[in-house]
Amino acid sequence: MKVKVCGITNLRDALLCESSGASALGFVFYPESKRYISPDDALKIIENLSPFTMKIGVFVNESSEKINGTASDLKLNAVQLHGEETPLSTAEIKFPIIKSFRIKEHFDFLTLHEYKNAYYLLDSFSKTQFGGTGIKFDWELIPENLKNKIILAGGVSVENIEEIFNTIRPAAVDLSSSLESEPGKKDKEKVKEFFRKFNSLSITL
To answer: Within a 13 Å sphere around the CA of 172, how many CA atoms are in the beta-carbon half?
Structure first.
């Protein structure tokens, strides 16, 4: 299981998460987000990261031209789409895609299969936010055959990572707010505590 830490806004947090064991770091290019970072500022961080760390740009209802341009300029490894992007629009994107789906009761999981060129990220539904809510959705809704294929987001934390290992074992988990002192600022002790627990589970389970 891999760990992606999203909402990176500064070099200190990026290096902290990278050195702690994050496989991927996410940069939010959605201007209305509390964790927004400009592509220019993100590039300054990316230039200081290991080539083995995945750099992922998060976009919401952005044009394929803008996504491709930003991803190319920043040499991103993948793009994460958190809006109402259609299968047709994602076909125009030239980088690996992580498509986010906001899960609520009666969500139709067959929708995922319409995005044949994407990896799947499952997050909590919110009427006001496209992500980073820190709220857990009902994980029992996840079909058994999808559990080990997804990236799990929405309320993932040190308190429930053992449950995730035992009951879901997704391909990766995605954290943001549970590691923060405030939106866009990571808390060193929370980051260290999470990765201590995560690494201990990785060894024993």
So the answer is: 18
